[in-house]
Design goal:
The complex is a heterodimer of chains A (487) and B (490). In chain A, 41% of the residues lie in helices and 20% in strands. Chain A has 487 residues and is an alpha+beta fold. In chain A, the strands form four sheets. In chain A, strands 5-6-9-1-10-11-12-13 form an eight-stranded mixed sheet. In chain A, strands 4-3-14 form a three-stranded antiparallel sheet, with no helix packed on it. In chain A, helix 4 links the parallel strand 11 and strand 12. Chain A is elongated and about 100 Å long. Chain B has 16 helices and eleven strands. An eleven-stranded mixed sheet of chain B has the order 1-3-2-4-6-5-10-11-9-7-8, with helices on both faces. Helices cover 39% and strands 13% of the residues of chain B. Chain B has a domain of 283 residues: Amidase signature (AS) enzymes. Chain B is of the alpha/beta class and 490 residues long. The chains are: A alpha+beta (487), B alpha/beta (490). Chains A and B meet through loops of A and helix 9 and helix 10 of B.
């Protein structure tokens, strides 16, 4: 890659489609549940595009779009409208998609992300609102299927399109951008960030130009990536493919290519000569919208702390490294897990190490998220406490943690760890007590002189010697009896 | 007089007085449909069972004197562009053959709630595209005044039904004159309300920014009654207005004394038949006699309304009609080799020539590279037309002119010349583009064929148009003239 980078500058822009987590669809009252509901159960004349039906705008979806745009530092124009994007496809019941063309809800924002410890800023061209399409199910592969079924449960689900400027210069940057964007969408509660089920989708525009050139090269749009890894691999593949074409004196064609994750390559889908003319025009069924400043301010007031701000707080208040702080704030549940753990007494750095280390390793192996685990912040805090007090070793803690992780209920494993580590045996306690008495002559004298609180000090010394493992109650008994009745 | 010859307000009184039942009235109209239906071919579907069932229910309401509305028990025809739950609704197109909507249009629901009786679905030009009803995907409609002539279009079936006694009243839709022009050509009253006055939910769309549902009746009082029943905001149509609906009957009889009425000089278009022009001039004179002051006004952009309309309406239609691809409902060719081929065959066979012509026009006008020159330019013209009306209405209360430059023409006379056909709507189109309302009332006969007077009022001032129309009707006998099919039965 470095060889390529010295010859060509990589230019990447991303178009991210994010479904909005509203209860009802964009233009009708149907439920947005399309993953679980039986096929075509959540449909009505409006989202089926039946003759005579008319759309009505879902205000919540507009607010979610504006909230997203504000989180991405966009301008919100006072006037916006919907347009029709016309094309034929069986998953598009009206023969057009209601979208936004020249007057979207927002434009000119930016998103910052970190790459190799440096902060990069990528421009956001626009965030607009549209409706999702239905879903086709082919009886076999798309080329060979004799029939296809269509499920319109997804048709009309509100969908945001977030378009970036061509400001990214590598596959790494593109991946970071999407991770950061996903985090923001989750933080503000507009999207659940699920890429596998298609609730968050990403297309990439990739082009190369000779180092130092000012004109952009021929761009290729890559579609069908459904993971961060897929995005990275697809862009990387495309960079290498394009540079090979250019290196061998070939010419690139402007086209759309699909990413085949299993084969690890992109395949041409259509070229510019066959590109659709979408014949955009203003949607006559929906009046234009006046977006009042009061409304925008109301929406702005509902914005939570965003990942960038939280990251800074983690660095300054918790003393975390910028890298760790970035990782921890990349998903809202993870950041909240850390804060919860700290609230329950865990030192931030230690908790962060657990979350980013063993915990993430186990979760990743199972393709799970932190919120899916039964280990609560309270459990983690207690485990850390055991290590810090010296009751168990770091190595033991790792074993115990994994046991806790595997168990349906982490409680017993944690309790067992506490119990098994405790020293309650008389012989050992006596040995500790003797050592305490021998090493703290002055306190022993004080106690004998009637200073009750000297005993507390002596117990504390015993705990220290036992590395916290002594049963404090039993230790007190043994110490007291030795001091009162010295043998 | 036979029941089917009467007006809504007349029959309402008889129903309330229990002089007649809705069942009798409905039977009377159904019998007239039996008698003359083959001559006019006004209906695509007669919903006899539904009508009798509704009539029975209406009689219950009338008997108990509960929830009695002006339309309770009144038999009404619905243009086929209106969706009625579980009743075949095709917009006059073969591509929707057999389509059973799972829901009813808002206007249909409102009439149902009032206890109206639905006679059936009236014939129309396919997707309301036409001025003669000859573009119906099924069969042309014949004018009850002269069966070899067109009834006008696109609401030709509704107009013919009212003019022949096959309905007491009807609903039509007007995108460029489709209520007013057939009303004029069949000697009835027809009103295009202001865009946004009546909900379009459930109206199978032709051109979304222009379509408006309106009443077609035997006189102006009926027109006010029917409009009252269907007007008003509807949450399901975002373009329907939230303005309150006035009581149209309250000001109907206020007369025109002291009113200022404008006569747009541009509305006496080239090609207007002299007899039509004379009738309009006579009508203007009559208003003057009634104490209105008449003023010539100018709507300078009237000449470009027609071309602008034939960009905007087809552009919207090309998009609205994209959904008819045979995959979910209606006609499906079923012989395509692949998806695109199947789409093409379905649309090739399912749509008629005029619909295809307009889809092509509209698709072209919206295409990359042509949008600015056509669609955007047409929208600018539309703005100028809106301004024209605004300026005129600072000086006058309402405008007067002909509805159609000609009387009903023979079937087949203009089918080979689309532009000649389009010129039928030259004086009705500006009201659609200009966001104003207009009503056509009978103003005379020439050689046994009706002429229509058009009264245009500002946006959401339907009561003004109706008041002027009523003053004319009250002072004349024109609305009492009955078509041979209607009158001969007396």
């Amino acid at each position: 890659m470095s060889a390529i980078a010295t010859r060509y500058e990589v230019v990447v822009g991303l178009e991210v489609h994010a479904q909005i987590l509203t209860e009802s669809k964009m233009f009708c009252g149907c439920s947005t549940d399309y993953l679980i509901a039986p096929p075509n159960a959540n449909t009505c004349p409006v989202c089926l595009g039946l003759p005579g039906s008319l759309p009505v705008i879902n205000r919540k979806a507009v607010e979610a779009t504006i909230r997203t745009a504000l989180a991405l530092n966009c301008e919100i124009p006072e006037f916006s409208k919907f347009d029709r994007k016309n094309y034929f496809y069986p998953d598009l019941p009206k023969g057009y998609q209601i979208s936004q063309y020249d007057l979207p809800f927002s434009r000119r924002g930016y998103l910052e992300f970190d790459i190799k410890g440096e902060t990069r800023r990528c421009g956001i061209t626009r965030v607009h609102l549209e409706e999702d399409t239905g879903k086709l199910l082919h009886a076999g592969t798309i080329d060979e299927a004799q029939s296809s079924l269509v499920n319109f449960n997804r048709a009309g689900v509100p969908l945001m399109e977030i378009v970036s400027e061509p400001d990214m210069r590598s596959a790494d940057e593109a991946r970071e951008y999407v991770m950061r964007l996903r985090a923001i969408l989750q933080y503000i509660g507009v999207n659940n960030g699920d890429m596998e089920s298609g609730q968050l989708r990403c297309d990439a525009n990739v082009s190369l130009r000779p180092e130092g050139a000012t004109e952009y090269g021929t761009k290729v749009e890559v579609k069908n990536m459904n993971s961060f890894r897929g995005i990275h691999r697809a862009i990387q593949y495309e960079i290498e493919r394009q540079s090979q074409v250019l290196d061998t004196g070939g010419k690139l064609v402007q086209e759309t290519r699909g990413w085949n994750d299993a084969r690890g390559l992109t395949v041409s889908q259509r070229t510019k000569e066959f590109a659709e003319d979408y014949r955009y025009f203003p949607e006559p069924d929906l009046p234009p919208l006046d977006v009042s400043r009061e409304w925008v301010d109301e929406i702005r007031a509902t914005l939570p702390e965003l990942p960038a701000a939280r990251r800074d707080r983690f660095i300054h208040a918790y003393g975390l490294s910028p890298y760790d702080a970035s990782l921890l704030t990349s998903a809202r549940p993870m950041a909240e897990y850390l804060e919860d753990s700290v609230r329950r007494g865990a030192p931030a750095k230690t908790a962060a190490n657990w979350i980013l280390g063993d915990f993430s390793r186990l979760l990743n192996a199972d393709h799970k998220e932190i919120q899916d685990s039964a280990i609560e912040p309270e459990h983690l805090a207690q485990l850390i406490q055991l290590v810090d007090s010296g009751a168990i070793s770091g190595k033991m803690a790792k074993q115990i943690f994994e046991e806790m992780y595997r168990a349906a209920d982490p409680g017993p494993a944690l309790e067992q760890a506490k119990g098994s580590s405790q020293i309650s045996g008389d012989a050992e306690l006596e040995r500790i007590a003797n050592q305490v008495i021998a090493e703290n002559e002055k306190s022993v004298m004080d106690f004998k002189a009637g200073k009750e609180q000297a005993l507390r000090f002596l117990i504390g010394q015993g705990m220290k010697i036992s590395k916290g493992r002594a049963n404090p109650g039993r230790l007190q008994e043994v110490l007291a009896s030795k001091l009162v009745n010295p043998r | 007089m036979r029941l089917f010859q009467r007006t809504i307000h007349d029959l309402h009184q008889m129903l309330v007085d229990r002089e007649i039942s809705s069942a009798e009235l409905t039977e009377s109209v159904l019998a007239q449909i039996e008698a003359v239906g083959e001559k006019t071919r006004a209906y695509l579907l007669v919903t006899r069972d539904l009508a009798l069932r509704q009539a029975k229910a209406a009689d219950e309401r009338l008997k108990r004197k509960r929830d009695v509305a002006p339309l309770t028990g009144i038999p009404i025809a619905l243009k086929d562009v209106l969706c009625v739950k579980d009743v075949t609704s095709t917009a006059g197109s073969k591509i929707l053959k057999g389509f059973l909507p799972p829901y009813s249009a808002t206007v249909v629901e409102r009439l149902e709630a009032d206890g109206a009786v639905f006679l059936g679905k009236t014939n129309c030009d396919e997707f309301a595209m036409g001025s003669s009803n000859e573009n119906s995907g099924y069969w042309p409609v014949h004018n009850p005044w002269a069966l070899d002539r067109v009834p006008g279009g696109s609401s030709g079936g509704s107009a013919a039904a009212v003019a022949s006694g096959e309905a007491i009243a009807a609903l039509g839709s007007d995108t460029g004159g489709s209520i007013r022009q057939p009303a004029a050509l069949t000697g009835i009253v027809g009103m295009k309300p202001t865009y946004g006055r009546v909900s379009r939910y459930g109206l199978i769309a032709f051109a979304s920014s222009l379509d408006q549902i309106g009443p077609m009746t035997r006189d102006v009082v009926d027109c006010a009654v029917l409009l009252q029943a269907v007007a008003g905001h509807d949450r399901r149509d975002s373009t329907s207005s939230q303005r309150p609906v006035p009581d149209y009957l309250a000001t109907l009889r206020n007369g025109v004394k002291g009113m200022k009425l404008g006569v747009p000089k541009e509305y006496f278009v080239a090609g207007m038949e002299p007899a039509v022009e004379q009738s309009i001039r006579d009508a203007i004179g009559l208003f003057e006699q009634q104490g209105a002051s008449i003023e010539e006004v100018s709507l300078p952009h009237s000449d470009v309304a027609l071309p602008a309309y034939y960009i905007i309406a087809p552009a919207e239609a090309s998009s609205n009609l994209a959904r008819y691809d045979g995959t979910r409902y209606g006609f499906q060719a079923g012989s395509g080799r692949n998806l695109i081929d199947e789409y093409m065959q379905t649309r090739e066979e399912g749509f008629g020539a005029e619909v295809k012509r307009r889809i092509m026009l509209g698709t072209y006008a919206l295409s990359a590279g042509y949008y600015d020159a056509y669609y955007l330019q047409a929208q600018k013209v539309r703005t100028l037309i809106i301004e024209d009306f605004k300026r005129a209405f600072t000086r006058v209360d309402a405008l007067l002119g002909a509805t159609s430059p000609t009387v009903a023409f023979p079937l087949g006379a203009k089918t080979q010349d689309p532009v000649a056909m389009y010129l039928n709507d030259i004086i009705t189109i500006p009201a659609n583009l200009g966001n104003v309302c207009g009503v056509s009332v009978p103003c005379g006969l020439v050689d046994g064929l009706p002429i229509g007077l058009q009264i245009i009022a500002p946006g959401f001032r339907e009561e003004v148009a109706l008041r002027v129309a009523y003053a004319f009707e009250a002072a004349t006998e024109f609305h009492k003239a009955q078509s041979p099919l209607l009158g001969a039965a007396a």
